[in-house]
Amino acid sequence: MQPSENHRRYWRKNLNITGILLAIWFVVTFVVSYYARELSFNFFGWPFSFWMGAQGALIIYCLIIWYYARYMARLDIEHNVAEEE
User: What is the 3 state secondary structure string of the chain?
Assistant: First the structure.
């Protein structure tokens, strides 16, 4: 069974958003940690690298999850694959 054009577009959009969000996750997790000494400016009264490690990364992770869930719910409706409640 060959997937329809609708399924291919759905899967392509899913892979694109997943790749973008994984790139954001990678930057927040590894790049900010790697350059922590160079990121020595104050952010909300704390050094930026400390703030990102203590709170910022967790906030961004939650935003990534929230955005992905919201985006996929809209994509499911757009491509008629949404679960019925």
Answer: CCCCHHHHHHHHHHHHHHHHHHHHHHHHHHHHHHCCCCCCCEECCEEHHHHHHHHHHHHHHHHHHHHHHHHHHHHHHHCCCCCCC
Answer whether 0.85 is exceeded by the pTM: no
pLDDT in tens, 14-23: 999 999 999 9
HSE, side-chain direction, 13 A CA sphere, residue 27:
7
Residue with tokens 């930057």: 27
The residues near 24 (Cβ < 8 Å, ≥ 6 apart) are: 60, 64
Q: Which domain holds residue 18?
A: 5-78
In a domain, 53, yes or no: yes
Rounded Cα–Cα distance for residues 39 and 52 (Å): 10
Query: Which tokens go with 52?
Result: 């990102």
